[in-house]
Amino acid sequence: MSRLIVAGGTIVTMDAERRTVVGDVVVEDGRIVEIVQSHQGSDASAPHARDGQRIDASGCIVMPGLVQAHTHICQTLCRGAGDDLPLLDWLRQRVWPYEAALDERAMRACARLAAAELLLGGTTAVLDMGTVHETDALFDAVAATGLRATIGKAMMDDGIGVPARLHEETRRSLEGRRGCLARCPWYRLRQAG
Fold first, then answer.
1. Taking residues 63-77, what's their average pLDDT?
2. What is the β-pairing status of strands 20-28 and 31-37?
3. Is-contact 145 115, C-beta < 8 A?
4. By the number of CB atoms within 10 A of the CB, which of 24, 64, 76, 119 ranks highest?
5. Three-state secondary structure string covering 78-99
C-alpha cells in the first residue's frame, strides 16, 4: 500500500457543508481516505502521519483538480496568432493552415506543452475536440502525462478555405473515428462485456 500525507494545508473539502479547514489529507493507493483537521497546523506525531511520503502544504491550498471542458490541445503552439481577426478569417488564415502543417513530432510537442500547462494550473481532466490527423500522437502524448482526457477526432469533409490536408472524404473520416474508438480501453471493455 502506498500512502501520501499532504500536511498542514488549507483544505477545500467539497463536503456537503463546503468546509475549508487546515489539516492533513491522507491518500492511500491514490484515494483520499481521511482529512484530519488541525487547529495549529500539522502534527507529525499523529497516528495518520507516521508512515508514508509527506508533502508539506503549509501556506498552500489543497483542493480537487479542475476540469476544463473545452480545450484545443493541438492549437497550443498557435496561441496568439491572429487574435484580432474575426472567427472565420482566424480559422481560414491561421488555425487551419497551422493544423494542416502539424506532423507527428509537432503534435506530440503541442500535447506535452498543453498538458504541462494544464497540470501546473491545477487542471486534472479535459475534454478536447482533437484534430483531423495525428490523433494517435495526440492521444499517446497526453496519456503519458497523467492528465485525464476525453479526446475526439475532428472531421472536416466540407468547408470553404479548408486546406487540402484537413479535408477528408466522409467515409474515410468515419473509419478513422472508428479506429480511434477501437484503441480506447473503455470502449474495448464495453465491446467485450
1. 92
2. antiparallel
3. yes
4. 24
5. HCCCCCCCCHHHHHHHHHHHHH
Mean pLDDT of 156-161: 84
Q: Mapped to the 3 state alphabet, what secondary structure does 21-67 carry?
A: EEEEEEEECCEEEEEEECCCCCCCCCHHHCCCEEEECCCCEECCCEE
Show me where the domains of the chain are located: 3-62, 66-192
How many angstroms separate the CA atoms of 56 and 80, rounded?
37
Residue length, the chain?
Answer: 193
pLDDT in tens, 18-58: 889 999 999 999 889 999 988 654 555 565 656 788 999 99
Written out in words, the top-level CATH class of the domain with range 66-192 is: alpha beta
pTM confidence score: 0.76
* Residues 97-142 pLDDT 10s: 999 999 999 999 999 999 999 999 999 999 998 888 888 888 889 9
Contact 9, 25 (CB under 8 A): yes
**The dihedral formed by the CA atoms of 12, 17, 23 and 25, expressed in degrees to the nearest 10:** -70
Residues 6+ away with beta carbon under 8 Å from 164: 100
DSSP class of residue 156 equals: -
